[in-house]
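Quick question: what would this complex look like in 3D?
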Amino acid sequence: MENFIHSIPTKVYFGKGQISHLDEALRQYGTKVLLVYGGGSIKKTGLYDEIMKILSEGGFTVTELAGVEPNPRIESVEKGVRLCRENGIEVVLAVGGGSTIDCSKAICSGYYYEGDDLWYMVKNVPGPKKSLPLVDILTISATGSDFDGGGVITNLKTHEKLGAFFTHPSVSILDPSYTFTVSKYQTAAGSADIMSHTMECYFSSPGDSGLTEGLSETILKTVIRYTPVALKTPDDYTARANLMHAESIACSGILAYGKKYSGWPCHAMEHELSAYYDITHGVGLAILTPRWMRFVLRNDPSTEWRFVRFAKNVWGIEGEDDHGLALKGIDALEDFFRSCGIPMSLSELGIGTEHFADMAAHADVGGRLTNAWVPLTKEDVEEIFRDCL
Amino acid sequence: MENFIHSIPTKVYFGKGQISHLDEALRQYGTKVLLVYGGGSIKKTGLYDEIMKILSEGGFTVTELAGVEPNPRIESVEKGVRLCRENGIEVVLAVGGGSTIDCSKAICSGYYYEGDDLWYMVKNVPGPKKSLPLVDILTISATGSDFDGGGVITNLKTHEKLGAFFTHPSVSILDPSYTFTVSKYQTAAGSADIMSHTMECYFSSPGDSGLTEGLSETILKTVIRYTPVALKTPDDYTARANLMHAESIACSGILAYGKKYSGWPCHAMEHELSAYYDITHGVGLAILTPRWMRFVLRNDPSTEWRFVRFAKNVWGIEGEDDHGLALKGIDALEDFFRSCGIPMSLSELGIGTEHFADMAAHADVGGRLTNAWVPLTKEDVEEIFRDCL
């Protein structure tokens, strides 16, 4: 069992109506608020009006940053930092999914960054020492950005999409009923994202952290059980609540406690797919993961025990033949994603082989593939991409 | 699924050699330290010398409060607060188990308490607003006081033993190797304590929080797997690490997320046993829990599904007959405690029926029995005590 450090200062209000805590959550830091959101779905659902009513009644001064992109860009971060400085912002309120919260985290850290180049901060400053406080209201169960300190920011000029540590939210309001309106496609992609975060930790060494291993299996079983319910009955509170509870833990680092860093190889490969084709992150992960698993299993037979455990403990598959079990577990994962309506091949998304070599050559950002649980070369990555066609 | 609030600001350094972070953990708050410990076992193991070397080399000024009792008394809290005030203490360092950490939490809160009567604070002040920062080094896996904000303080003059919320530790150093020297008896009692914390949450309504339910089962299975290993091979790092990881979560509140308050009835009944007979808390819990379970099952058949789940998911018992399964799960728990060397009856501890009526009459402190998952009357409590003979 490896050493670890646990440090998650975020206070979470989880459940129906927890927006009643919004006023006190913001007020402890001040009354000048930057409200950050994305494409405007919160205006359609009425959440925007509900928030503005609370802020207005509370006497808060609100500056808005709307239109944060699904893959948030450095220009949005720059704009947010400028708005904070010009308006003496005391606290940032992010309302949306991972992109909006990621962008807001970078804004909070960027506010105190003394250099001129915020992209330099994203690339080179590990864990800024000081950040503006961030409060968020989550509207989709997927990334776990509400309970971790990291964010992914894109620079279209340099063709880079990079993850960095900024700051943990101070307060996260997680009301599962806000996800009732999430589409079937985005619900399925979100669940694939949650499962991917979990599996990126689960498939690593060693295997002697009983609590971590069991918690990972519990999260996977929870998502497998409740995603079909949410797809069939979008306003099933129990299903949406279980998915939201799962997403908050899956990316928090807790599933890596006692284990070695796994490299998160599927994420590294998916970032290339998203960067070249702008596909939905969770869909890219769903397509890649079973193919990555089969590649690992056939190239490193010493990993078989882990896939056997996955088949038994996550999917409840029984049998005597370990290799057969291992393969059946991977098949079960692929079948599950397909049953959720996720297109499970790159060709279904209109993606061919044309950029595979370039994407494979770029994928090893920060040594995430060479230092992975089972290290991957660029030839390996190309092979996995081809398996996804 | 019920609403919940997650708020655990404690930073945990988990693993071998994490004492290397002690200097920085303290120094962020100051250099004037109150060192709190118990009966002196840390002097026998060498941990005291290791700590004093770090504090001396770091130029810290150390005031000592030694001899904190296994059931920490209000007089120790009063003495600690006096020492802090007289010596301008900036941070409290607790080294030991739950009793030492509980006492230290009350000292940290008591420091800022403006009244004269610290027992009044324990009884009547819910969550003091301000506390001195607390750093702890854990030496036994049992109470989880390193990762929660509560403490239990005893007042011998008024014959009261009360739990209260004081403050979360700011930093906890959890090095499993410090538990290598814990005796077999205390190791077993500690595991019973961890399991009891978990079961007090698990046996409550509703049952639709997938993550919480699964995490509870994982903790129970982890303790069941690794306690016998630690008893047989006290310096087995993996076993000690798994027990320590489990104890930190079991009492943190995380296992109650999404569930109704259960009342923690076994704890309420055990506090009476400890108060009258000064027995080891974990041993009292181990004796009470299976008897409480059988009482609940025979008096409220609607609870059967939960005991069936316990038998299947925790103990791996299969079968068609639900009632038989439920009973077998409870038997498995009792057999497990016995196999760990815990005396599993009150008569083995020399306890007879003489105080049962009085103990039963006092047990419902704060409505913990009348508001329990399955409410208990004082007659019920007497019956459970008699079943423990």
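Answer marked as accepted. Chain B has two domains: 11-178, 185-387.
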